[in-house]
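Loading example: each entry is read as two labelled lines plus one structure line.
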Amino acid sequence: MDNITAVVQKARSGRISFSGQGGEFFGIWIVNVLLSILTLGIYSAWAKVRTHQYFYGHTKIDGHAFRYLATPMQILKGRLLAVLVFLVVSILSNLFPLVAIVASIALLILMPWLLIMGLRFNLRMTSYRNVRFGFNGSYGDAMLYFLVLPVLTVFTLYLAMPYAMKRLDQFVYSNITYGGKEFEVNTETGTYYQAVLMAILVTLGLAAVGWMLSYAILPLLGKSITTSPLLMLPLFAAYFVVFTLAGAVYQAIIRNHLFNSTELPELVSFKSDVPTGKLFVVSLTNLLAVIFSLGLAYPWATIRMTRLLATHTEVRVQPALDLMRDQLAAESSAFAEDIAGLYDADFSLT
Amino acid sequence: MQSIPGTYYLAASSQCCAALLRYSEHNITVMAIDDGHSVLWQSEDFSTGADLPGLPLEIRFADGSYFLPDSSMVRLNPRHRAGLATRLEQHKGIILLSVFLVPVLLWWTTMVGIPKLAVAIVPWVPPAAIQAVDKQTLLILDKTWLNPSELPIQTQQQLQQQWLQAMATIPQRHQVPVDIQFRQSKHLGPNAFALPAGTVVFTDELVNLLQDNPDALLAVFLHEVGHVRYQHGMTLLVQSTATSLVFAMLFTDLEGITEVILGGGSSLLQAAFSRQMETQADDFSTNLLHKLGKTNAGFIEAMQAISGASDGKTGKELENWTRYLSSHPSSEQRINKAKTQQKSD
């Protein structure tokens, strides 16, 4: 264990350890869903906090667990406000369809703000060794990297999209702070092009395989079925498989690159070596398990994915980390984060 | 007096040290292990963090420092009993009950609870608001799918008169104020629809298709009146809003595929409710045709003409496969139902 009077110490390296158990989390999840239904959704705020606390508490770096500090009341307040806004907007846009157009424009303008408020809330509520994280991104930058830049790539026939994605990741991760110190991100545009190219190649390759398969199988089934709309089903399934695989390829390359190029200067550096093939297999089997269990495998799948990402992440901690100060005050509203979730604009950091 | 080994995290700092927590009758002492047992914190005031399965219980102090026991079994009560939430989440019987109750309750909420709620709410919606829905919807449709009617004014007036006269002779409780409109629409083809407040729109294409068969047109008109009479439009609107709200509240933390499954499920449900409503409107139409001294022939012919014009032969095959996705029952089903009703009379 670390000592207050640490004098000469060397950098410590180790994998992120995740000790959550599928069975244990299943109990938490299903009982919380039941309680949420029975309380007409009120308990869902408690469920969210408990779930976050479970995952954070089981995630350890250098022997110390993360903590999730948000209280259920903070989440509940935000959630009720979000529900109210949702109700007002949906009633008004049903009565006056023109309101729907105005509301979606307003949402577009509000979205960057909601996103950064959500990020800020989540990070402020994340603590490691009693020092909190934070987020410094501004509204203007969020507007630029979330909306303007991706939209502008249309004019380059999306050829600049990987560049826009790099800038977006850079915006998000370089604005994260720990104990007031900012992370430094030195990602390369080339790697993003490489990742997108690999994802496209995988998509094309799978499409070709699927095309050949359909030619091999169709004659066996006879002519009658070729016009059947039932053919849409395997096509729909194939679409999911292809996008999971292509997504996994992109995610593996970018996550590894992002972690390897990100550091908290003089304090923490990372190494990520998630194998593309493994990430694909886990994503695909998770997908199938959740579908065929009608959702019941969700806790198991989540634990499995978290464990995979944790075991393939190495963290190198410098002794100076033992002497950090927390410089953040605890005040922020859960509203922004929750309204983003309800409108499905929230996104995760892992 | 209990002695609990763990780690003490100093306030607002990343410093921490191995420590022993001594606990007795609401008095807590935290002592450093390495440092000659110096006292790090002593107080009567403390709070505990959330109690979670498999995780040690955090003991928090007023200055923001906290103590984390090494063992996940430690609880600050005589029998080391875990909190209620944790006990529920670890109780095999409760978990099994949840696995059974969650699908049942979800099914009940979406199939019974929310529809009942919708039916209860609809009468409270102010008529002015429903009128606004009609006006705005028609305005948008006129700018997108619909064009002004090219039917001669006389034809329009004649049909309106015929239908309003028929309406005046049906039982009082089924009479609703309607506003009959005609529009040309290539997109919709031969079609008719009703908006919540009673705007009933016929396409020129439908009127032309059935121009030699006034009874068939009347049957379609009565079907649309059925939708207005039973407030189907408003009910579906309230229902879909309530459903998406409930699912958003219950499953905010789900992502990706689970959301697709739930979304798909609720669309299927909406379609099922919509099919029920179509059937109810069909029954309304055939019933009133009888009251007006007519047979089901008009209804059957209208269905045949519409399904023949829009789908053709492959359409029939398609209907078999897509019936669970469709907002309407298959035309074959609707025709057969009308035919059997005819026979039983």
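Chain B touches chain A through 69 residues (CB under 8 Å).
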